[in-house]
Structures are given as C-alpha cells and as structure tokens.
C-alpha cells in the first residue's frame, strides 16, 4: 500500500510507517495533512480510480537543514570568480495513515 503526494514542488512515494524528508512547511501541533494526493495503490499494479477526499496524515519527527552545497561561478580569462553556499531547510515526517475512498491504511505497530 502506497500513495504519491505532491508537496514543495516535488512528488514523494510514501507508505504507512515511512519516514520522509520534505521541504520545510508549516505544521501545527506536530502534525501534517497532505491533501494533494496524485495516486494511491492498494495492491501491486492497481490504482484507486476515485481520489476525491484522499488524504495522507503524518507527524513531524524533526526539523533541520541539509548539507551545504557550494555553487562556484567562473569565467575564464576575465578574472571572475564567485563562490556561494546554500543549505536547504527540511522537515522530517513519519507517515501514519493514508485515507482514500472511506478506507484507512495505518502503519503497523511495532
């Protein structure tokens, strides 16, 4: 069982119990709800036809910033060099439940 959600300009394939790093987004009380669900598959190779009201519920595990990426611009023979760094913020979430068509798929308790 998995779903494909869209958030932060990217798409992620998630299943109940997965932990995913997504672009930083607003959350309240440590919970997130993704309503932009692209696809849901209950069994291998078959997709749900009606995605009206489909949601993915998740809880925030941690927040942070990724590794530094160095961007170096260089123009030869012009004495032009520019070095710039960037660290992208992220939110790490744990997928708890996928709701679609009145059915609920939850993470298995360990």
From TrEMBL:
GO terms for biological process: translation. The keyword Transport does not apply. The keyword rRNA-binding applies. This is Large ribosomal subunit protein bL21. This protein binds to 23S rRNA in the presence of protein L20. Keywords: Ribonucleoprotein, Ribosomal protein, RNA-binding, rRNA-binding. Belongs to the bacterial ribosomal protein bL21 family. Part of the 50S ribosomal subunit. Contacts protein L20. SUPFAM superfamilies: L21p-like. GO terms for molecular function: rRNA binding; structural constituent of ribosome.
């Amino acid at each position: 069982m998995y779903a494909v959600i869209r958030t932060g300009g990217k798409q992620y394939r998630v299943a109940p119990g997965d932990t995913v790093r997504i672009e930083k987004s607003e959350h309240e009380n440590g919970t997130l709800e993704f309503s932009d669900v692209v696809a849901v598959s209950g069994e291998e190779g078959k997709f749900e036809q009606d995605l009206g009201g489909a949601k993915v519920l998740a809880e925030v595990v941690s927040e942070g910033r990724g590794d530094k990426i160095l961007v170096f611009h260089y123009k030869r023979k012009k004495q032009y060099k520019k070095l710039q760094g960037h660290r992208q913020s992220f939110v790490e979430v744990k997928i708890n439940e996928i709701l679609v068509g009145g059915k609920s798929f939850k993470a298995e308790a360990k």
